[in-house]
Q: What sequence folds into this?
């Protein structure tokens, strides 16, 4: 087991290095000058800025410098906020995105498993049809639509009560997190529902389920101990990447609900050609994604003993 | 309470009961988990107001700040030698009085101006800040605004040491400034962010992080930042050490939300969480539907089509530019394309608010009231084709930014020139940095551009197309234009300066340097109980310094 984890970790580091390298060169290939602003700067000022950010050196040298700094865990200073370190940006804003993401994924996973199981048990009957149409809706409608509608619903709710029941936007308390987490988790919940449904249908008529029935086990016990436990495996598999996707993909939701998450920096850095923030956030998210996949693989072993033997 | 009015009387009691029940459930479940306060946008008792920022202020080191949001924040918490008062008049700030001649300026500072740590604001703090701004390694993009000070430009180019800068502290409270040349608007510059003082000892103690956090700044303005959660909120409290604190009513100005989403801000306004928000074309209709009072304000910026005047470009041809100008109708553009209140049709490089000799420049030297003339435009176009030796003008590249409004404007122009003149326009939509790169490299025929004022003098627009100006990205070059700009730069007599600028206005029009599109107006919502909010074309806007909440 220890050897297996070590192997996966080394593989992970190579993956992160590859992500960093590809992003570095792709970023420099994008046309546009990161040091250019609406008001033109004199050549002297531009040269000074270029020197401060090391942009006056050859690309290969910049790359090596970046790699050595990255190995030390230092991503440099932001181009747009010229007194803020990228490490501080990640440190300040990732916890916000992570908290929102965890809440969203909890809502999504719990909802997905429950709705998926229900649709499978009531296959082709009314509950199944209703839930599955909602699922299609949630998958096809982009999150910014739900975010805008969700916020509007909060405004309506507060107006109806005449006092502020739930905050419309902002960050700080659990009350602030509920609507954005729900909106953010909706797409994943729909995805998980579909996955859970098909995987539940595969399991529902397996031999061991029939055996359990023959043994005279109660319906509930069959459901929780035999059907659910086996059907949940594929859901856990996609959960890892989904955690990463949700934590990184919250840009629009963060914008609309005025949440100080890292997703805003991630997207705005690309628009602003903020080289250091692009590299910092991409490498950080890349490493996070890789780590999540490894964690899920290890978790898998606990749920399915056969994986451990291999 | 609009909901109640629509519901028949018989349902009111059960609904009210249900509402109370639900409310109690919510209350119980949330009070335990949160410190939920029923916030409202303004509070007369505590004199506090909440607003939203459109983005996280990128740079609160005033010596390097360039963007609107940072300048808005800094103008509330810092003060220069002079400042704009509640009526928008330039008045004494840290400086109590001054004397300005053609060669030098002397400022006598008040002895009761304090930093937020209790130290007095001294002349040395100005000397340190100004030297730092022009020091090349600071790489301040606004260094040019200090160029009227002796040797500033040479220092900024690395040709002299920063200690050569023409500014000296005669004693703690007397500041003497040598001028590079007579500068009529020097006093107005001293209210600008780049001229704010910085205490050297504190600056050094932050080790490069000056302005990065609330405790990494010293304040000498009406407010101080008490709490700054990056990208979430920025809270200002009244600065009790501010010398003019008795004139400040607000105890708390809370930038409680930071979001660029105008719809989110509208929702926050409707929910009574914020007292002020700018709205756009998209949210305008919703604000109307909510029966909100919409106010408008002319920002002082001018938007125009800038031509590429580089040799070899078809737009270097005067008759082609004349044709494009003659077919364009700014009235129609404002009414049919922009479709928002507040915008003014573009008539000149110089916006209407600029001061002239006695009154407004545009009243004293009116721009010509052109009406679109298609026949004339066609004649110009034929002349252009003959001069260029072309049967057809090749498609013209129109470079615009990737905002929805810019694209809409570009499509209108494309349709206009195709239908009226048979000219093909190829729209080139680019992101912010790429558009700038292409503008600078000259990879365009026409570019949708704009210019906002840095200071309250006609020169902030006047030198835009001088041959040496780096912002003249179309590379327009005209000896007469340059001469008129030099005259205005070196003279202090308003009559001479404005005559020269009138000549510039004429050159821009006759030589069709640009096609003025519109003077920008914005629309916004303001809480009816919040009074005294000042909108301003230069400096920090909106200005809440002298605002107060009425009961």
A:
């Amino acid at each position: 087991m220890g050897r297996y984890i070590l192997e996966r970790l080394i593989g992970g580091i190579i993956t992160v290095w590859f992500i960093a390298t590809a992003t570095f060169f792709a970023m420099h290939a994008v046309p546009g000058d990161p040091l250019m602003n609406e008001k033109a700067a004199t050549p002297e000022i531009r040269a000074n800025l270029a020197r401060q950010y090391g942009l006056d050196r050859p690309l290969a040298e910049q790359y090596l410098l970046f790699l050595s700094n990255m190995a030390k865990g230092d991503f440099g200073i932001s181009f747009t906020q010229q007194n803020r370190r990228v490490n501080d940006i990640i440190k300040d804003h990732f916890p916000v995105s992570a908290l929102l993401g965890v809440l969203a994924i909890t809502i999504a996973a719990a909802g997905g498993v429950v709705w998926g199981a229900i649709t499978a048990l009531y296959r082709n009957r009314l509950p199944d049809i209703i839930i599955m149409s909602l699922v299609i809706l949630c998958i096809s409608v982009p999150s910014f639509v739900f975010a805008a509608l969700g916020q509007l619903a909060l405004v309506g709710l507060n107006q109806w009560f005449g006092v502020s029941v739930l905050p419309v936007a902002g960050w700080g308390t659990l009350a602030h997190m509920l609507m954005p987490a729900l909106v953010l988790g909706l797409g994943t919940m729909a995805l998980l529902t579909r996955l859970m449904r098909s995987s539940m249908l595969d399991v529902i008529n397996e031999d061991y389920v029939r055996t359990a029935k023959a043994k005279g086990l109660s319906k509930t016990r069959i459901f929780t101990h035999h059907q659910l436990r086996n059907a949940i495996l594929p859901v856990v598999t996609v959960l890892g990447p989904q955690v990463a996707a949700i934590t990184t993909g919250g840009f629009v939701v963060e914008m609309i609900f005025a949440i100080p998450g890292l997703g805003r920096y991630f997207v705005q850095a690309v628009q602003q050609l903020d080289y250091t923030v692009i590299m910092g956030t991409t490498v950080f998210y890349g490493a996070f994604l890789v780590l999540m996949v490894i964690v899920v693989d290890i978790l898998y072993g606990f749920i399915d003993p056969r994986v451990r033997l291999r | 309470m609009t909901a109640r009015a629509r519901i028949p009387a018989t349902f009111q009691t059960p609904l009210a009961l249900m509402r109370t029940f639900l409310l109690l459930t919510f209350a119980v479940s949330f009070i335990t988990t949160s410190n939920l306060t029923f916030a409202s946008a303004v509070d007369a008792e505590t004199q506090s107001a909440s607003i939203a920022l459109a983005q996280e202020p990128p740079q609160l080191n005033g010596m390097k700040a360039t963007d609107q949001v940072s300048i808005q924040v800094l103008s509330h918490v810092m003060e220069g030698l002079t400042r704009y008062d509640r009526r928008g008049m330039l008045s004494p700030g840290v400086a109590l009085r001054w004397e300005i001649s053609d060669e030098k300026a002397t400022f006598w500072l008040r002895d009761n101006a304090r930093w937020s740590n209790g130290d007095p604001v001294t002349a040395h703090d100005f000397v340190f800040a100004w030297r730092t701004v022009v020091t090349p390694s600071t790489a301040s993009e606004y260094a040019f605004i200090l160029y009227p000070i002796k040797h500033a430009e040479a220092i900024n180019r690395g040709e002299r040491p920063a200690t050569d800068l023409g500014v000296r502290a005669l004693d703690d409270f007397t500041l003497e400034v040598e001028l590079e040349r007579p500068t009529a608007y020097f006093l107005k510059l001293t209210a600008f962010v780049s001229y704010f003082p910085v205490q050297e000892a504190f600056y050094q103690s932050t080790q490069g992080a000056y302005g990065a956090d609330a405790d990494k700044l010293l304040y000498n303005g009406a407010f101080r930042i008490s709490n700054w959660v990056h990208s979430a909120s920025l809270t200002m409290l009244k600065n009790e050490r501010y010398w003019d604190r008795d004139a400040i009513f607000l105890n708390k100005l809370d930038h409680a939300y930071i979001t660029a989403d105008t719809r989110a801000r509208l929702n926050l306004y409707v929910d009574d969480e914020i007292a002020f928000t700018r709205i756009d074309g998209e949210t305008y209709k919703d604000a109307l539907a909510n029966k909100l009072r919409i106010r408008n304000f002319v920002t002082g910026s001018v938007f125009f089509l800038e031509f590429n005047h580089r040799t070899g470009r078809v737009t270097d041809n005067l008759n082609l530019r004349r044709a494009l100008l003659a077919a364009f109708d700014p009235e129609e553009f404002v009414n049919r394309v922009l479709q928002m209140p507040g915008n003014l049709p573009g008539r000149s490089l110089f916006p209407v608010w600029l001061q002239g000799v006695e009154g407004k420049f545009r009243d004293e030297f009116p721009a010509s009231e052109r009406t679109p003339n298609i026949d004339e435009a066609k004649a110009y176009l034929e002349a252009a084709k003959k001069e260029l030796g072309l049967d057809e003008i090749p498609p013209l590249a129109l470079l615009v930014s990737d905002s929805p409004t810019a694209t809409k404007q570009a499509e209108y122009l494309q349709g206009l020139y195709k239908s009226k003149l048979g000219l093909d326009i190829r729209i080139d939509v680019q992101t912010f940095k790429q558009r700038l790169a292409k503008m600078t490299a000259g990879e365009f025929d026409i570019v949708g551009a704009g210019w906002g004022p840095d200071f309250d003098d006609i020169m902030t627009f006047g030198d835009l197309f001088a041959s040496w100006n780096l912002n003249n990205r179309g590379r327009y070059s005209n000896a007469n234009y340059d001469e008129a700009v030099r005259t205005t730069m070196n003279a202090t007599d308003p009559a001479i300066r404005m005559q020269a600028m009138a000549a510039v206005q004429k050159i821009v029009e006759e030589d069709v340097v640009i096609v003025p599109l519109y003077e920008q107006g914005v629309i916004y919502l303001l809480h009816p109980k919040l009074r005294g909010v000042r909108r301003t074309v230069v400096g920090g806007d909106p200005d809440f310094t002298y605002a107060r909440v009425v009961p």
Observations:
- Residues 9-31 of chain B form the longest helix (23 residues).
- The two ends of chain B are 21 Å apart (CA to CA).
- Chain B touches chain A through 69 residues (CB under 8 Å).
- The CA atoms of residues 400 and 447 of chain B lie 6 Å apart.
